[in-house]
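Here's what a typical entry looks like (Gfo/Idh/MocA family protein):
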Amino acid sequence: MLKIGVIGAGHLGKIHLRLLNQSKKYELVGFYDSNREYAQKVADEFGYTLYEEIDDLLQDVAVIDIVTPTLSHYDIAKKAVLLNKHFFIEKPITHTVEEADELVALAAEHKVKGQVGHVERFNPAFKAVQDKIDQPMFIEAHRLAEFNPRGTDVPVVLDLMIHDIDAVLSVVPSPVKNINASGVSVISETPDICNARIEFENGCVANLTASRISLKQMRKARFFQRDAYISVDFLEKKCEVVRMKDAPQQPGEFDMILQNAEGVKKQIYFDNPDVDENNAILEELETFAEAITQDLTPKVTLEQGARALRVAKQIINSFSKK
C-alpha cells in the first residue's frame, strides 16, 4: 500500500479522505488544511490525523493528493516534486498555463508521476463508449448547474466547462485550429454562462456550453461521426450508440431504414454498450496508484491537464476581447 496524504479538506477534499481511507491501494497517513479551526473539526469528527505543516506531511508519504483552491496548486505540487513525491492534483492543473508547463517539465526532470483529476474520464457512461468514438467530426456538450457560490471565484470555463474540454481533447486526435467564444457574467464577477466553438485541424468542430445559473442540472455530450451518433449523459450515467449500415436487400418488418436524396438506403440500429457502475473518484485515485506501482502512464497525464487548461484559457481570452 502506498502512503498518501491529502492537502485540502474542503467539500471535495473530505470525499477524497473518505475514499482513500477505504482504499486497499493506499494507506491514508493524514491531511493538512490551512484553515486550522476547520481542519481540527474534520480531524475530530472523522479521526484522520491532522498535520500542522505541509512539509511534515510530505516527509511521511510517498504520494500527495492536492485538493486545494487552484491558486495554490503549483506551489504545493512543486514542493512535492522537489521532494520526489508523486502527486495527484485536482483540475484545473494550475492557475496559469506557464505554471502548468513548468510543472510538467519539473516532474519529468525528477521522474515523478502526476495525475490530474479530470474525473469525467472515469464516468462509467463515458468509459463505456470511449472505444466507439472514432474520428468524431461534430461534438456538442451541455453542462448546466444550479447556482452555488462555491467556485464562482473563477469563470465557469474553469469551474465546469473544463470537464468537457478534457473529454473532447481525449477523443479528437488533432491539434486545435481556432476558438471562438462568448461569456456573460450574470451574478458573479466572472462569466457564469459560456459558449465555445472549438475547431480542430482535422475538421472536427466542438460546440460547448456551460452555465452555473440554470434551473436544472444537465451534463450531456453528443458525438457525431461517420455512420454513428453517440450520446453520453454524465449525470445519469447513461449512453446510447446509434449506428448506420447499408440496408439489406430484404429489410425485416421492424428494421429502421432511411433513404437519402440519392436513393442510398441505410439501416439504423442500436449498439448500446453495458455501463458498469463505479465510484469515479475512487477509480481515478486507484488507477494512479497502479501507475506508480506498475510504472505505467497515468490515465490523465500532466501534459493532458496542461492542454485542457491551455484551451480553457484560450476560450476565456476569446470572450474577454469582445
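The radius of gyration is 22 Å.

More examples are in the samples folder.
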